[in-house]
Amino acid sequence: MKWGICATGTIARKFASTIREMAAEGEQLVSVGSRSAQGAEAFAAEFGIPRAYGSYEELFADPDTEAVYIATPNSLHYENTRAALEAGKHVLCEKPFTLTAAQAEALYALAREKGLFLMEALWIRHLPLYEKLDALLAEGILGKVTDITCDYGFIANGARRERKFVSRLGGGALLDIGIYTIGFADLVMKDAPDSFTSTVHFSEYGTDDDSRICLQYPGGRSAVCVQTIGRELPRHAHIRGTKGEIFLPDFQAAETMELRLTGQEPEVINAPFDINGFEYQIREASRCVAAGRCASARYTPDQSIALMRLLENIRKDWGMVFSCEE
Known about the structure:
Blueprint: E1 2-6, H1 10-20, E2 28-33, H2 37-47, E3 51-53, H3 56-61, E4 67-70, H4 77-86, E5 90-94, H5 101-114, E6 118-121, H6 128-138, E7 145-154, H7 158-165, H8 173-189, E8 195-202, E9 208-217, E10 221-229, E11 237-241, E12 244-248, E13 256-261, E14 267-270, H9 279-290, H10 301-318
């Protein structure tokens, strides 16, 4: 598929480098748009992209671009995705998909109306290790899953810290990395939680920098998710059941897990990436477009909307409103 990239930041660079490694699969980068022509041209030169535009509108109007990857700040995802769809482009939008469930519902409805593919780029949902995990849980290897714990934390300094937290961009640890911990719990539990409790600390920017969220699921199951930008935490995840547990040393960049069944020797299960992990969501988008589908069955609009609704409800419980929403 012929791709364009909307924005030129860190996550856009990872996407571009991944596409560059997928040329043999027919994936191409044909355009890039930035807030400045200079930024777009520098990015295009680095990644060998033939057309560079100094505005997102010019990118969306490019006649040769079939699909657009939205890599702008959180607060711009809704308007940029809508503009790309209105221009007739398929869209893969970086997480968090939107700031509210209503925005998410509106975008998926627009994609269906126009017959275009749309998916939130929550890349961990497409990893091959999680196909193996799903199969193990489906066969009841752990018995009844009882609880999950999942942690993610890192330290950001200087300008990077401001970008992570500034309210007008929809900042904070919840939408930046909590979407991974809570998204992992959602992937395993396959249910919306009945309720949640949480503790939170706010940064000097008025957005969350550290939280612990306890999710209660049907059947007495639970998940505890910790997400922080200010402390280094290994990305460990434990899935516990009545017959044992599964441990993931890195649940986000998930290439290995350890099955620990009661009374048995641990078993290590591996599923290494072909490139860096981003390739699987790109392949899914291309497969769906080729099949004429407006949505993925691996990560559906309903799942994306439900996750957005939960994150929105957590923010409401905290009383955290972004300045771009006021």
